[in-house]
Amino acid sequence: MKQLIECVPNFSEGRNQQVIEKIAEVIQQTEGVKLLNVDPGKATNRTVYTFVGEPEAVSEAAFRAIHLAGKLIDMKNHQGEHPRFGACDVCPFIPIANISMEETVEWARKLAERVGNELQVPVYCYEFASFSEERRSLANCRSGEYEGLKKKLESLEWKPDFGPNQWNDHIAVTGATAIGARNFLIAYNVNLNTTSVRRANSVAFDVREAGRVLREGDPVTGKIVVDKNGEPVRVPGTLKKVRAIGWFIEEYGIAQISMNLTDIAVTPVHVAFDEVCEKARERGLRVTGSELIGLIPLEAMLEAGRYFLRKQQRSTGVSDAELIRIAVKSMGLDELAPFDPQKRIIEYMLDESSKKKLVDRTLRDLTEETASESPAPGGGSVSAVAGALGAALGTMVANLSAHKRGWDSRWEEFSDWAEKGKSYYNALLQCVDEDTDAFSKIMDAFGLPKNTTEEKLHRKTAIQNATLHAMMVPLKVMQLAYDSMEVMLAMARDGNPNSASDAGVGALCARMAVRGAWLNVRINASGLDNKEQSEEILAEAAAIAAKAEIIEKEILVIVDDKIGE
Fold first, then answer.
1. Most-buried pick from 18, 94, 177, 178 (CB within 10 A)?
2. Is 82 tagged catalytic?
3. Does CATH number 3.30.70.670 belong to domain 186-350?
């Protein structure tokens, strides 16, 4: 699975269209990243760029953009309403998929070090990438702004984390940069059945972390209560990491709660929605739907779907498409405009190659492609398909068992099995294309030039690497298909008895996947020069095949017993 991070750098130029476009162009030209949005602001004289990709590519694009901005933007002449202290004012990395915050921090700090050393720009690391609690806050790092930067650099307390700490003509032009790692921020609005901004604000104050100012007597007109330092006392809201305000949208004729969810790991979108629903109900209002601004990570939508299914005591082991549909309908994300997952979910927007994948073709297309004169897709891909279908059947039985009449108390048990089955069939579906790609790599390796000694050595190494990969992919199919049989065994033994035959067919498919993939491991073994490594892989494959045969027989004995003669 690809690791994905998002980068949202803010550059101190929002009026010169030529500069804005040149920075966008250098990002777009970096291989492996996709520029999702460019948002210039004239009043702030600032442009926000949003791009996504794998960490190394994103880091490279950010570096190139920061480098170019230092040449195109002169901070000595910059004026704008937004706080700023550099040409690239702030550059956050945000983990999106298959990457931890700790790993994201490492990439942010690597970029910070590179910018400081190679571009000689003072860099402060903030949020999760900060080296001290005081520098965690972006506001602290940027305090004094550009005008106070010379004095700040001279302070031992505010020596940059990377780059020079002595003011010079170069820094006078580029200013400083804050580079950090933070969680994904979601702009999210909840629709109310009222036109009253005051009532909408009341709900917003109920939920937002900052809450409201405490007053004596009347909560609106009463005297503000202050602490011993003369600061207003606040009553915190119920949602952490949430900013919120009420407003009226003339276009829709309704009031909304407009929220920024600054850390969806703390307060996910579905939790915010449900809490607003509850607080609105307490005030005699009703939530009619909601509106997502911009993009959202896939996992945020999937978790929302699981959340609402759990509330119904329904199995969560359904397809991603079904989870997304449940999330959209549960939160009314399509009330004001259609919600197209392909345009609103980050990972789907990045998946430009989906039409080329075997798994995304129709069953007829895949079958006819397999039947053609082309040697791929072949037995390895078909074995992975069979394994995916077997795991899908086990998942189906789990889902059916989760809502079988009279088994309501067991829904979580079967939901867990369905989730497990889903993970197996998703992994096996990925192997369908992996196997074909592995074959293509062997063909590419054999097609390399072999005129010189160096070319011959390179070609031989490439062939051996490709051959090893062509053994390891079907070995992975074998292991996944065998592992998935635990789902079929559990469903044959404990699942809905009316679906026992489906569990049996699932086991047969899984066993076929194991044996079919085993043939592919064996046929590729002859091309591997390292015979010791080859024998180790063959021994591992044989062991998996033997275990699969045993569990298949166990499952079929149970199934035969349940369905009778």
1. 177
2. yes
3. yes
